[in-house]
């Protein structure tokens, strides 16, 4: 199945140990229910096959289906293990950009509510004292009439972390139908979240690497 999706990925960077790819909104990272062949992993499998390479890729973190931007993959198990450690101890840093609804009272802050599955829901998460620790830093880049462009950095990588934290703060993401079903502006048709910047050191050479992905038009 992985070899049947003949479309090349948008590669931002590649070396012998890692590959960074720009994911479009609406594409899953890995095959799952409803997305068996049209995924980022399928694209990479096709890319490596075209280049007659056999590579066992490992994603270092994932993005939700509707979230766009940078996804990092390790090209072998040793690199995956080392990058996972960088992610856990904060040396691997990701910055997101989002459009959040509302007028912010504070232009920057830190959110540290623990996150757990919402009881009775198959998909939603919530802030809960029984959840896993989660830390999100936010900074308003530009305030508009009814929403703001916000820069977010994560110390942890919990499921839906940004979406849950910003919703709990009272500034849910524009277009997020799961956590903000009342959103009705037709200009934004998906959750307005983008993986904008990634910084880490090459797991073998130690070279510091930083990549950015500009905001997509939508």
Write a compact overview of the structure shown.
With 218 residues, the chain is α+β, with helices and mostly antiparallel strands. The chain has helices at residues 40-50, 77-89, 161-169, and strands spanning 10-14, 18-23, 58-59, 68-74, 93-101, 108-111, 115-117, 125-127, 136-143, 147-154, 193-201, 208-212.
Describe this structure in words.
This protein is an alpha+beta fold and 218 residues long. The chain has three helices and twelve strands; from the N terminus they run E-E-H-E-E-H-E-E-E-E-E-E-H-E-E. A hairpin with a 3-residue loop joins strand 9 and strand 10.
Helix content: 10-25%
Number of helices: 3
Show unreliable segments: none
Instruction: Calculate Rg over CA atoms.
Output: 18 Å
Which series of helices and strands comes N to C?
EEHEEHEEEEEEHEE
- Number of beta strands: 12
Amino- and carboxy-terminal Cα gap: 30 Å
Largest sheet geometry? 10 strands, mixed
Structural class: alpha+beta
User: Based on CA inertia axes, which overall geometry fits?
Assistant: globular
Q: Roughly what fraction of the amino acids lie in strands?
A: 25-35%
Mean pLDDT, to the nearest integer, reads 91
Fill in the keyword field for this structure.
218 residues; alpha+beta; 10-stranded mixed beta sheet; two-stranded antiparallel ribbon; globular
Task: Write the SSE topology.
Blueprint: E1 10-14, E2 18-23, H1 40-50, E3 58-59, E4 68-74, H2 77-89, E5 93-101, E6 108-111, E7 115-117, E8 125-127, E9 136-143, E10 147-154, H3 161-169, E11 193-201, E12 208-212
Parallel strand pairs: 4-11
Antiparallel strand pairs: 1-2, 2-4, 3-4, 5-10, 5-11, 6-9, 7-8, 9-10, 11-12
